[in-house]
């Protein structure tokens, strides 16, 4: 499983949307607290 920070995801989504002429849609799902805290240090 790969992980990206929220900022990285936003930049990726914006870049792909621009490259695709606005046809890109980013879909996100939920995670578990242990993943968020362990990978990103967020409480």
From TrEMBL:
<protein>
    <recommendedName>
        <fullName>Luciferase-like domain-containing protein</fullName>
    </recommendedName>
</protein>
<feature type="domain" description="Luciferase-like">
    <location>
        <begin position="2"/>
        <end position="42"/>
    </location>
</feature>
<dbReference type="GO" id="GO:0016705">
    <property type="term" value="F:oxidoreductase activity, acting on paired donors, with incorporation or reduction of molecular oxygen"/>
</dbReference>
<dbReference type="InterPro" id="IPR036661">
    <property type="entry name" value="Luciferase-like_sf"/>
</dbReference>
<dbReference type="InterPro" id="IPR011251">
    <property type="entry name" value="Luciferase-like_dom"/>
</dbReference>
<dbReference type="Pfam" id="PF00296">
    <property type="entry name" value="Bac_luciferase"/>
</dbReference>
